[in-house]
Amino acid sequence: MTNEGAVGVGLAGFGTVGSGVWNTLARNGELIAERAGTGLKFEIRQIVVRDPDKPREAPAPAELFTTDWKSMVENPLVDIVLELIGGTEEAFELVAASLGAGKPVVTGNKALLAERGAEIFALSRLHQTPVYFEAAVAGGIPVIKAARESFVGNQIDLISGIINGTSNYILMRMTEAGLDYSTALQEAKELGYAEADETLDVNGWDAAHKAMLLGTIVHGFLIDPEQVYVRGIEYVRPLDIRFAKDLGYVVKLLCIVRRHEDGSIEIRTQPSFIPKTNILASVNDVFNAVAIRGDGFGDALFYGRGAGQDPTASSVVSDLVDAGLALNQGAEGKNQGFLPYREEGTLKPIDETETAYYVRFPVTDRPGVVADIASLLAKAGIGISGTHSAVDPDEPDAAFVDMVFLLHTCPFGILKSALKGIENLDCVTERPVVFRIETL
Predict the structure, then answer these.
(1) 15, 53, 117, 292: which sits with the fewest CB atoms below 10 Å from its CB?
(2) What is the mean pLDDT of the chain?
């Protein structure tokens, strides 16, 4: 039996997050109705799963389960669709069909929005039906709403964030316990902090998708993934972690969305050196943090759990309430979801972006090495703020040492060109390792 006064919800996906949504509505349904101020109630009326007979954590009635998402979209008792199945192909079909049926969509699928956002937002505009996606960025941290609503009257100049908990945990363990990457990754898997296939978490793309969404929200245009610079943490070695600590820095997988004076937008994700005194340096475990800087308010920080059942379900339910309130307003509420408000924008080419740098050169241990490298850097117009050398304690008998150069701010393209020449030196035994030094 259905509650005729409730908003009907179709739930696609009943894994960790989907179960969390069910539990949250069951636990706090009355509280939500009171806080919404309209007596707004929600009732999950159909649940799409791949295996209806699989044991479930949440006690949903068996009659709600189906394997056919099309029947859920067509169900007249379903008013709002929650897309929590993940992936991009089937998820896109589900979202497109739901919007075509005039049913608002709530999703936490950052990969879907980053890769097919242009099509989804076009369908949203065409059918005058909103898409909500707070859960797609930073789990339970309401950073999307802050960017859209709280700072709607402000020019956003910089967003910097740690928005992948898996990578953050791995780097923390490499820093605090001296673990190598493989050992720290295995520990993260054993604790449930890393997926069986950790690729998107450690190669930087999970965080990059989130950064792209934040960039779209605050700057108004869709961002092409092919124009976004992304590097992961797989190449980070304990030696670099130790150098960072000795120099007063912490290594973090950092996302940057920066507006330049010419209006171009710099967006990138990569492991970076952050000063220990910066607040982001103290973000550990699987926690996320997003710092936003803009005119009028200065700096604001958003911190919390970036993943997991309850934090992500919290964001999904928040969007569900917004969608329900908009439905209750009728036609006036149809456009309350986000839509890009600029047809295009300019992304700053990565070669034109500027920071200071840490560059480690594995070299043969002979006189004149520093002079050879410094000569080519000077020829490129790159200043040197310091040099350091060390033998990797993991390879004490190696016939080479590691020379670290701390470089003044310069365009990345100039540095890349200089490094190509340096790599050809006989004394350089491996490809140089580069980290940006962020001042934020």
Answers:
(1) 53
(2) 93
HSE-up of 387 (CA within 13 Å, CB side)?
A: 13
∠ CA 55-58-64, nearest 5°, is 80
Give the distance, in angstroms, between the CA of residue 259 and the centroid of all CA atoms in the same chain.
Answer: 18
Q: Where are the alpha helices (DSSP H) in 161-308?
A: 165-176, 181-190, 199-202, 205-219, 238-247
Amino acid at 127: H
pLDDT at 334 over 60: no
Q: Which of 252-266, 317-331, 359-373 has the lowest mean pLDDT?
A: 317-331
At CA 161, angle to CA 168 and CA 261, rounded to 5? Answer: 150
State how far the Cα of 434 lies from the Cα of 412, in Å rounded to an integer: 10
Q: Give the Å distances, CA to CA, from 15 to 132, 152, 304.
A: 20, 34, 22
Question: Model's pTM, two decimal places?
Answer: 0.91
> Band of the pLDDT at 393, cuts 50, 70, 90?
low
Outline which parts of the chain fall under CATH 3.30.360.10.
143-305
Start and end residues for every CATH 3.40.50.720 domain found in the chain: 7-139+309-333
Read off the DSSP letter of residue 348: P
Instruction: Tell the CATH superfamily of the 143-305 domain.
Output: Dihydrodipicolinate Reductase; domain 2 (3.30.360.10)
Amino acid 319 reads D
Superfamily of domain 7-139+309-333: NAD(P)-binding Rossmann-like Domain (3.40.50.720)
131 contacts 121 by C-beta, under 8 angstroms: yes
3-state SS, one letter per residue, for 385-404:
EEEEEECCCCCCCCCEEEEE
How many angstroms separate the CA atoms of 312 and 142, rounded?
Answer: 10
**In the chain, ranges of CATH 3.30.70.260 domains:** 350-437
Architecture of domain 350-437: 2-Layer Sandwich (3.30)
Q: Give me the active site residues, please.
A: 210
pLDDT band for position 192 (cuts 50, 70, 90): confident
Residues 15-31: tens digit of each pLDDT = 889 999 999 999 999 99
> Strand pairing partners for 273?
251, 437
